[in-house]
Amino acid sequence: MAKTSCFTASIDIKLADKLKQDLLGQGFELTQPPDTIFAAKKKGVSCALYESGKLTVQGKEMDTFIEFYLEPEILGEFRFSHPEAHLDVKSHIGMDEAGKGDFFGPLSIAAVYADEKGIIEMQKMGVKDSKKLGDEAIVKMAYKIRSAFPFTLIRLFPQKYNELHAKFKNLNRLMAWAHTAALSDLSQKTGCKEAILDQYANQTLMESFLKQKKLDVHLEQKVRGEEDLVVAAASIVARAGFVEGMKTLSEEFGFELPKGANSQVIKAARQIIATHGKEALGRAVKTHFKTMLEL
Questions:
Q1: Residue 193: which region, alpha, beta or left (left: phi > 0; alpha: psi -120 to 50)?
Q2: Are 99 and 201 part of one and the same domain?
Q3: Which among 18, 104, 107, 119 is least surrounded, fewest beta carbons within 10 Å?
């Protein structure tokens, strides 16, 4: 959580009465210093709302006050308590993928839905961008997300992935198809018509696939989309799908397959060829990678 001696925000003056009544209900004592609508104080926390709409909060208990009351009830955003994922608390679907840059393993596409209460719950759960979590933490957090929120996970293991890549002849088109399928499924399940995607290609590509599918959803494609908490949740579900898929393939081939696309994957691929024959690679790797030329 962010630490500062004084927190400042701007609020809609229309919320002044709600804020005032809520603070009275929480045991605050109110006064009206010059230029303020009111000031409020109780043990550990004091705040002042100015005529301009400026709100200041300070005191040793302000972190708890801001996180559990002010942000969800008044501000509608969580820049103080959760700066790595500024919360858009409107109901929406978040989407992301994992495994596209890995020679071994599946392409994992996930879509997750949350309403306002769900987004606040995600914040309390500690959901964050999957790149900031290790594999074990990813799998545990993904289990919590899948248990609490509607989701769709499309996992394309190498054999199916390679068939589809041959059809689409382009990774971005393949991903657009998979994202559209996941979005369509989850939109039908939830009735949600708003979605955010961590942008990976030209926006017109996804728009064309949505049009072909006749999918009536407003899609926002954002660079660094994982800053949105629901996209971050989708990132975790997608990454866990990839991690679990790698475990399945490792068990099938009898040794731990490496992630990424480095010298270790070449060594592992050669081991598969030596044991199972080169044709078995199609069940383990993405065959359009340039890494294939080194085998």
A1: alpha
A2: yes
A3: 18
